[in-house]
Write a structure and sequence with these properties.
27 helices
């Protein structure tokens, strides 16, 4: 039991028997380059480039899309590398510390420095990071991550423990038998660092669907355009390729994925600078949509450190003797939580410890700890659970103390214990009063959430009266509406309580999960904060989970966001960051889709009407740069903390469709007039490009409401940049100098486009409002039927 010697540890390190993981989700730089270069749309661009060369187009104007393609790949590589580098630094800072015995002494080392045959101490709240055999002590573990069953499993000497499981109660010593990639820990770490595309938020799933459909439609549409141009219009292969390339470049959302990647990665890096670690990127989006935040009392509303303020004897026993008796018990229990640490600090350790025959460690289901002697059983914990039927005798006194925001523990004795259960009520010897001071910044934090229409639900294992009093001190709205969760027996009662109450006391881990599920069933997007083992089930169930770094390692691994400074006042910043990211991506995605929808519809029109595609690929590239790309990316960094309400797909489509349809209407009408008055193709393409640019600027102004000075500058730079490019480099971008007649005709179409755009926007906004009201009525009726 002295553990390995220094020489034995070094030998195992040399043999590679150390707890290093090679199967993490971190990509190499080569993989990052591969993923950003070898994409489906880059393959389409390669094919387009080859076809242009075959069609004998060799001018710079024919290849102006290539700088955008290269810039997309380079920026994507840089951002992903920068994001991964930042998170790697955070992960190193946040590597879990464990205690091992080597050379007969205890050492604190990082978990990735464990070697085979190390002796590892385990306590309640630890996640087991290696496989091994328990050689000393007794534990209660949760192996749900391995078996799918949430039952608590008792482990004694000789039993095998698996990495990935959690220590619920007790303490002991483990001899390590498997490390590194041989254990379940490697798979856990990989899963924590990788984001499954199917587990993404609504925004990324919507963009996936849009891009996939575009990718499917591009090839048959391109082939149909070449066939129509060569066979129906009798154009040469060179002309047919030129028209097809312009349409395909217009349909490809070359910057949409990059926009999302850059925005999410930049957001994660900004949060990392404030010591907030993101386990998966989609949690930023999920948090931006949260309308209900479930929190614990200790460590969130209050400071994590707890202190004993008073001891009330219940019998004629001297204070010194009582303190010595309580100290005799608490110093035999593991100080693996704030409560026990406070008890051990207040009650002095006796010079001589009379060891108990057996220890019943704290479990969330019981809410007490106990020591079993031959002559008696001493217990300390929740008065309701220990006093049982005799609780009513002390209820008024306990409630008065709890109403002041203080926590009350009962200490007493009984004559028997069956397993971990105490069949009889204890004889009460003392009430122990503890207190956590409310965080100084708590009222301001909850005031922020109140103004953001985010409902707060305080879910705690403490007395609901105590939790309510603390919540009032923190200025939480609805703090007077509390309920004892033990009264909630049925699913119907839990559903009703989730809607009615703000404060939930005496909540078990399973009931925390049920409350989160009940809120989700009522169409709420739920975030859950936690720092203990008893929070794990609820953390995994919530739409977004936040853990404190000072809490249990199991809670940190289960959460999608970790506050490394354990400062809950960071939550407003995180929510604002998420809302800014999603709102700006939503605005910029609308700009991208205007061009994509227009190009798709115009391609169909040219196929079925035998007209020539009106724009040149160089003009499309210029419009993409100044009307979409540059303002789209710049606007992603603009502060916008508006709460997310609507569905992403519906919002961006309703934003993009009016402008795209106006472009199709105006340019289609221009093409028709051009055929009647025999206007040249170069004039048609020039005026068409100007119409698209004008509508693009108009939509930029509309989507940037309310206008700020920064948004105004971005719009002005985009407009001036486009005008300068057309004026100074018109030949490069295939702009012709139109006649006065054509110029006058173009002005008429611009004015008509503006009028139609205003009416289309009004119509689509009216439709969106009608749909939203109908959907809200449907959800309300659905919820009423469910109740």
């Amino acid at each position: 039991m002295d553990g390995l010697s220094t020489q034995e540890v070094q030998q195992r390190i040399n043999d590679g028997q150390v707890n290093h993981h090679q199967t993490s989700g971190e990509k190499s730089f080569r993989q990052i380059v591969h993923d950003n270069v070898m994409t489906y749309f880059n393959l389409i661009f390669l094919i387009v480039t080859v076809l242009i060369l075959i069609g004998h187009h060799y001018t710079i104007s024919d290849f102006l899309y290539l700088p955008v393609v290269i810039a997309n790949a380079v920026i994507g590589i840089f951002q992903e590398w920068r994001f991964q580098k930042t998170l790697r630094k955070l992960t190193i800072v946040n590597v879990l510390q464990v205690t091992v015995r080597r050379d007969g002494q205890d050492h604190h080392i990082k978990v990735d420095q464990l070697v085979r045959d190390d002796l590892l101490y385990l306590h309640a709240g630890d996640q087991i990071s290696v496989d091994g055999q328990l050689v000393d002590g007794h534990l209660t573990t949760d192996e749900s991550i391995l078996t799918g069953e949430a039952d608590e499993i008792s482990k004694g000497q000789g039993d095998t423990l698996y990495s990935g499981s959690y220590v619920i109660a007790g303490d002991g010593m483990l001899r390590v038998t498997k490390v590194g990639d041989e254990t379940y820990a490697a798979q856990l770490i990989a899963k924590a660092k990788q984001t499954d595309r199917n587990d993404q938020g609504e925004m990324v799933r919507a963009i996936d669907r849009i891009v996939n459909w575009i990718g499917i439609l591009i090839i048959p549409l391109g082939m149909a355009m070449v066939y129509q141009s060569m066979v129906t219009n009798h154009h040469s292969f060179s002309v047919a390729i030129s028209e097809m390339v312009a349409a395909v470049i217009g349909m490809i959302p070359e910057g949409l994925y990059l926009l999302v990647t850059v925005a999410l990665a930049t957001s994660a890096v900004r949060l990392a600078h404030h010591r907030v670690m993101i386990h998966d990127m989609h949690s930023i989006e999920q948090l931006s949509r949260v309308d209900t935040l479930c929190i614990d009392k200790t460590g969130t509303i209050t400071e994590p450190d707890m202190q004993v303020t008073q001891v009330l004897p219940m019998h004629a026993i001297q204070e010194t003797a009582l303190k010595e008796l309580i100290g005799q018990q608490v110093h035999q229990l593991a100080a693996d939580n704030a409560t026990m640490a406070a008890l051990q600090k207040y009650f002095p350790q006796p010079s001589t410890i009379q060891p108990a025959a057996r220890i019943i460690p704290f479990e969330s289901a019981n809410k007490y700890s106990a020591l079993v002697y031959d002559h008696a059983v001493y217990a300390i914990g929740a008065p309701e659970n220990l006093l049982k039927d005799s609780f009513d005798r002390y209820a008024k006194q306990i409630q008065q103390i709890a109403a002041g925001g203080q926590r009350v523990l009962a200490f007493g004795k009984t004559d028997q214990a069956i397993g971990s259960k105490l069949p009889k009520p204890i004889e009460l010897l003392a009430l122990i009063i503890l207190q956590n001071p409310v965080r100084a910044n708590a009222p301001a934090t909850f005031d922020y959430f109140a103004h953001q229409d985010v409902a707060i639900k305080v879910i705690s294992g403490d007395n609901p009266v105590t939790v309510s009093a603390v919540a009032k001190q923190a200025d939480i709205q609805g703090a007077a509406d509390y309920v004892d969760a033990r009264q909630l027996k049925t699913d119907r009662q839990i559903q009703d309580a989730a809607q009615k109450y703000t404060i939930f006391g005496r909540v078990t881990p399973a009931k925390k999960q049920q409350l989160v599920q009940a809120l989700q069933a009522q169409q709420h997007t739920v975030a859950m904060t936690g720092d203990g083992v008893n929070d794990i089930l609820a953390l995994k169930t919530a739409d977004c989970s936040i853990a404190m770094a000072t809490g249990a390692s199991a809670a940190m691994n289960a959460a999608s966001i970790v506050l490394l400074d354990s400062d809950f006042s960071m939550m407003p910043r995180i929510v604002d960051e998420g809302r800014q990211t999603v709102n700006n991506i939503q605005r910029s995605a609308s700009l991208f889709l205007i061009k994509n929808i227009f190009s798709f519809l115009m391609a169909l029109i040219t196929i079925f009407t035998a007209m020539s595609y009106p724009l040149k690929s160089a003009q499309i590239s210029l419009i993409s740069a100044f009307m979409i790309g540059i303002p789209g990316y710049l606007l992603t960094f603009e502060p916008d903390h508006t709460r997310i309400h609507d569905h992403f797909t519906r919002t961006v489509m309703l934003n993009a469709l009016p402008a795209a349809l106006v472009d199709v209407f105006a340019i289609g009408l221009l093409m028709t007039v051009g055929q009647v008055f025999d206007i040249g193709d170069s004039d048609i393409s020039t005026v068409s490009a100007l119409i698209m640019a004008f509508v693009g600027i108009a939509m930029l102004i509309y989507l940037s409401q309310p206008l700020t000075w920064l948004r105004g500058i971005i719009i002005a730079v985009s407009a001036v940049g486009f005008i300068v490019a057309v004026t100074m480099m018109g030949d490069l971008f295939r702009f012709a100098r139109p006649s006065l007649l054509v110029l006058a005709l173009g002005i008429v179409f611009l004015l008509a486009a503006e009028a139609v755009l205003i009416n289309f926007r009004w119509l689509f906004n009216w439709f969106n409002g009608l749909f939203s009201r109908g959907h809200a009525r449907y959800q309300a009726g659905k919820h009423a039927r469910h109740r």
